[in-house]
């Protein structure tokens, strides 16, 4: 397949100071792109300049995007990479953890994209959303993350209908990558180990770069062969996907993996009362 070169392309990356963001900035720069990042933790003098911006602040996003676009003298590619995680059982009322995941994982990407669309339309550029396999194959005790990432995909689908004549819109679906995004979940005794197979960050970055350089913007991109299979099962055989998740969960509960997790207490009680 014919590819588009990244040389000279003007790229804006959100969450640029995080695990994916740092690796993305390095890889894009090495490929010849000009990159500016946005992040709550600025690094204006870094090899990839990162401008400070609280993406959850509606008044801060548009000025930050304008500053980045001015620095790049236009925009060819927006990578909505910023994201946060955290435990959130669906049976409990939404709290600050839930609100923040919806704000960062969905609304921040929405705000950033809306602010970046005029220069992207001018350049016939692209938008890439970094979602999650959990947008297609949700897991228990992480409702906010799955909901926010599934909503992000729905936003990307709507955006594609509206601007797809001028801007390519793609979604990339990583699985679990070792990064601080999982720290709060692990601290709550709800580690994903044994539920989701880890993959290297380099593979996710490579998938994003393949998406950015494809001749036509692909709609949905899995980062591994296993990911493609999981997405296919989640979309085309959801009942089978449910059974697989329930079987894995039952094995973890029986093994006592979640005994020390207060947020899993209700599920543990119901499992043992059957």
Brief digest:
The chain is of the alpha/beta class and 274 residues long. The chain has helices at 19-30, 58-72, 96-123, 143-163, 183-187, 201-213, 225-236, 238-254, 265-273; strands at 10-14, 34-39, 50-52, 77-80, 126-130, 168-173, 220-222.
Task: Give an overview of the whole structure.
- The protein is globular.
- The longest helix is centred in the middle third of the chain and has 28 residues, at 96-123.
- The mean pLDDT is 89.
- It has 274 residues and is of the alpha/beta class.
- The termini are far apart.
- A seven-stranded parallel beta sheet has the order 3-2-1-4-5-6-7, with helices on both faces.
- It has a single domain (10-233), classed as NAD(P)-binding Rossmann-like Domain (Rossmann fold, 3-Layer(aba) Sandwich).
- It has helices spanning 19-30, 58-72, 96-123, 143-163, 183-187, 201-213, 225-236, 238-254, 265-273, and strands at residues 10-14, 34-39, 50-52, 77-80, 126-130, 168-173, 220-222.
- 48% of the residues lie in helices and 12% in strands.
């Amino acid at each position: 397949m014919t590819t588009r070169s990244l040389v000279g392309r003007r790229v804006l990356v959100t969450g640029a100071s995080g695990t994916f963001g740092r690796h993305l900035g390095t890889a894009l720069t090495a490929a010849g792109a000009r990159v500016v990042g946005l992040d709550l933790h600025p690094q204006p003098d870094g090899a990839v300049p990162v401008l400070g911006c609280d993406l959850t602040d509606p008044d801060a996003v548009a000025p930050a995007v304008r500053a980045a676009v001015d620095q790049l003298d236009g925009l060819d590619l927006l990578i909505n990479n910023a994201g946060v995680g955290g435990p959130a059982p669906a049976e409990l009322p939404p709290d600050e953890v839930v609100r923040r995941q919806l704000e960062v994982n969905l609304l921040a990407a929405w705000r950033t994209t809306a602010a970046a669309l005029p220069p992207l339309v001018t350049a016939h550029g692209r938008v890439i959303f970094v979602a999650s396999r959990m947008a297609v194959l949700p897991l228990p005790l992480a409702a906010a993350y799955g909901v926010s990432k599934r909503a992000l995909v729905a936003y990307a689908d709507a955006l594609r209908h509206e601007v797809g004549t001028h801007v390519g819109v793609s979604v990339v679906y990583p699985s679990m990558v070792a990064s601080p995004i999982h720290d709060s979940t692990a601290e709550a005794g709800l580690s994903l180990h044994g539920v989701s197979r880890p993959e290297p960050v380099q593979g996710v970055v490579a998938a994003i770069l393949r998406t950015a350089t494809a001749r036509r913007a692909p709609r949905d991109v899995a980062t591994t062969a296993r990911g493609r299979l999981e997405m296919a099962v989640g979309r085309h055989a959801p009942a089978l996907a449910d059974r697989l998740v329930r079987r894995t969960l039952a094995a973890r509960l029986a093994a006592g993996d979640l005994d020390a997790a207060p947020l899993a207490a209700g599920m543990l009680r119901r499992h043992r009362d059957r």
